[in-house]
Amino acid sequence: MAPIPVRIKGKEAAVAAHLDSLFGRCPQLEPLKSEIEAAYEAIARSFEGGGRLLVCGNGGSAADADHIVGELMKGFYKQRPLPPDEQARIGPLAAQLQGALPALSLTHHTALSTAFLNDVEPTMVFAQQVYGFGRPGDCLLCISTSGNAKNVCAAAEVAGKTGLAVIGLTGAQGGSLRALCGVCLRAPANVTAEVQELHLPIYHTLCAMLEEAFFA
After folding, report:
1. Nearest to residue 143, comparing CAs of 72, 35, 55?
2. Which residue from 14, 16, 40, 65 could staple onto 55, CB 3.0 to 4.6 Å apart?
3. Is the CB of residue 213 less than 8 Å from the CB of residue 44?
4. Hey, is 56 helix, strand or coil?
């Protein structure tokens, strides 16, 4: 993959507009403003430095992890045409490609996951991938509605000890995950389905902010 361009200068107001839109639609999320901004900055710094975003979660949160990757790895609000030098290097196929922000969901890799579950330790399945894929300067986004998913917490702990920035996306209490994260976005709900309903506009906004920052 081509290097990710540094954030486009002068886009701060356009990035902030996505936050304003979020709070207009979901005013109950406005107390999370500083945490959302901090999560955005952590991920943006990682992309600027050549890092990647790793994402993990279970059940509905696994689907959210895949959803986030889908929004970052292709156009979301924008078309993201490749820059001229990349178009020249790739040739005609470049017209069918889009700029990508490198993100990886840890919920797939069936052969690896099932082998590790069977042969080693089920609660370490995400942590093993963090250890294998992660590099200092990368980010790990951990999604758990309770904040107590053992495999997610183990991934966060390994990430923090190996030089990754750790971001949590949880319910109101934060659970055990809260203490393992540099930034914890705690949706103001406790019922699993209601937490998940609030997670979606939070991560959609983060994806929109990141796209705005890196693509014209």
Report:
1. 55
2. 65
3. yes
4. strand
Tokens of 28: 């109950």
User: Sheet holding 139-143: strands in order across?
Assistant: 103-105, 53-56, 139-143, 165-170, 183-186
- Say if CB 17 and CB 24 are below 8 A apart: no
* Distance from C-alpha of 168 to C-alpha of 185, rounded to nearest angstrom: 6
Tokens of 180: 């393992």
Continuous segment of H or E residues that includes residue 126: helix 125-133
- Helix residue spans in 107-179 (DSSP H): 110-119, 125-133, 150-161
Paired tokens of 142:
């951990």
Tokens coding 196: 């998940």
Name the pTM for this structure: 0.96
What SS3 string covers 137-148? CCEEEEECCCCC
Q: Going from the first residue of the chain to its last (216 residues), give the mean pLDDT of each consecutive group of 10, the final group possibly shorter.
A: 80 97 98 98 97 98 98 97 94 97 95 94 96 97 98 98 98 98 98 98 98 96
